[in-house]
Structure formats: structure tokens, C-alpha cells
Design a protein that fits this description.
The structure is a single chain. With 261 residues, the protein is an alpha/beta fold. The chain has two domains: 7-77, no CATH class; 79-260, Endonuclease, Chain A, CATH 3.30.870. Helices cover 44% and strands 16% of the residues. The radius of gyration is 27 Å and the shape is elongated.
């Protein structure tokens, strides 16, 4: 019979077992307080272990290990949230993409990494970008990295693509004095004939800290994507997983696959 009791319950039973110096004739006292199903699960398990020579101390140790595994699994489950964009009520039971992005931005304490294909230039997203610029200028966050594709001017980059992108970025995207580290696909600067797009959509907050979290989504950093389209993603609040995302972008910069504008 599978043991389905939560970790806290298993630890409570283990504590009672550790007080015993002998195998009791009945487990009634140890299992007091559990419902009938819980008592049946553990009594069967205890009897099987005793037949194999198990002592109360050994059984307690097994329960503690089970509790460790149960709690680790719950932490893994709690670390992930499904995030959805779309008109109500389609995502009423899921986290909203725009709200999740806004929360990551406003709660970041040290850094932000944002990757998108299209940077939205609506008034709402200009306000969101300005909130990042204000936090960067005030020192509330120390580092902002933005990876994007300049789709709005992709057909008129001219002979000096990086200069053209920088001028457009400073005028239309980020007119505020404190600038982020901004990157584009290096193939744009080399005049590559192949279609090349930075198409990933990611927001990482507070990389390389114990608060690190990341949203990986199909939604661009734009109002259309995060307010109107049907888009899906996952928010992960496990720092080591979120750091994997940020570190991958940093490695691509080091390898020259992204270049600063």
C-alpha cells in the first residue's frame, strides 16, 4: 500500500517511534490522531518492516527519509506556476502574463534580464520601461540587460546597423538617461543574408541570488502579446533553474552571438 501522508505527519509519527525502545504489541498509541486510512497505511508498513527485523528507531529513520522526499517534491511543485495571456475568463484560474512580468520587475532587488522579439511601444509598455529606468537610476536595481530584435526598423538598418539600432533605441524605446545593457543578434551587425531573429521571450529577476526567478514565455514584451494574444509560459522560483536561463544568455554574449548596441 502506498504511503500518501504529508511530510509533517510522517515526522510526527517518527518522533513518537523514537521514544520507543522496543517493538510494541500494538501501534495504536503511535498512530493516535491519524484517520483510518493513515493508520492502515502505516500499520501495514510497520508490520512489514518488523518482519524484516526493523526496530522503532529504524522505522523512524525510514519515515524521516520519506518526509524529506515528500517535502522536496512539494517544493519542486510549488516552484512552478503556469502563466497565461488572453481575454478573461480564459485565464481566470492561472497567473496573468502582464501581472507576472510587472511583479518580477517591481520586486527585483538587484538585476533584471529581459529577452523579447518585439519591444512593445504602447503607452502602457513605455510606462513599464520607464519604471525600470527609474529603478535603475535610483539604484534600486543595479543591472538591466535587454535582448531584442529591432523589428520596427529591421528593413532599414542601412550600412551601420548597430548605430542605426542604437539611435532608434535611445529615441523611441529608452529615451531616459540611465541606459540598460542592450544586445541584438550579432548577425544583424555582420550583414548576414539569412533571416536571424532574437526570438526568445524571458524575464529573469535577481539572477545569482537566493531570490532568482524566471519567466519563460511565448509572449513578447508588448501589450498585444501580454494583454490580448493567447500566450503560455512557466514561472520558476527555484534560483538554480532561473540562473541557468540568465547564465545561458551571458555565455552567448561571451561567445559573441549577441553584441551590445
Amino acid at each position: 500500500m502506498a504511503i500518501t501522508l504529508p511530510g509533517q505527519t510522517l515526522r510526527g509519527v517518527a518522533a513518537k517511534l523514537r521514544q520507543l525502545s522496543y517493538v510494541p504489541t500494538s501501534w495504536q498509541g503511535v498512530l493516535a490522531g491519524l484517520n483510518a486510512d493513515g493508520r492502515e497505511q502505516l500499520q501495514t508498513f510497520f508490520d512489514e518492516l518488523v518482519l524484516e527485523g526493523g526496530t522503532p528507531q529504524l522505522i523512524a529513520k525510514v519515515l524521516e527519509h520519506l518526509a524529506d522526499q515528500r517535502e522536496a517534491l512539494q517544493l519542486e511543485r510549488d516552484a512552478w506556476s503556469f502563466v497565461w495571456s488572453g481575454p478573461e475568463p480564459a485565464h481566470a484560474k492561472t497567473a496573468d502574463t502582464f501581472a507576472t512580468v510587472d511583479q518580477l520587475i517591481q520586486h527585483a532587488e538587484s538585476s533584471l534580464l529581459i529577452a523579447t522579439y518585439n519591444i512593445g511601444l504602447s503607452s502602457q509598455f513605455q510606462d513599464l520601461l520607464k519604471s525600470i529606468a527609474d529603478r535603475l537610476e535610483s539604484g534600486q536595481i543595479q543591472r538591466v540587460e535587454l535582448f531584442f530584435h529591432p523589428i520596427q526598423i529591421a528593413d532599414r538598418l542601412g550600412t551601420e546597423p548597430l548605430k542605426t539600432i542604437r539611435q532608434w533605441f535611445d529615441k523611441d524605446v529608452w529615451p531616459w538617461p540611465t541606459k540598460p545593457l542592450a544586445y541584438v543578434d550579432q548577425r544583424l551587425s555582420s550583414g548576414s543574408a539569412e533571416r536571424c531573429y532574437q526570438h526568445s521571450k524571458v524575464v529573469v529577476a535577481d539572477a545569482d541570488t537566493n531570490r532568482s526567478s524566471a519567466l519563460v514565455t511565448s509572449a513578447n514584451f508588448s501589450e498585444t502579446a501580454q494583454r490580448h494574444n493567447f500566450e503560455a509560459g512557466w514561472l520558476v522560483r527555484q534560483p538554480w533553474r532561473a540562473d541557468q536561463v540568465a547564465n545561458h544568455f551571458h555565455e552567448m554574449v561571451q561567445e559573441g552571438l549577441f553584441v551590445a548596441i
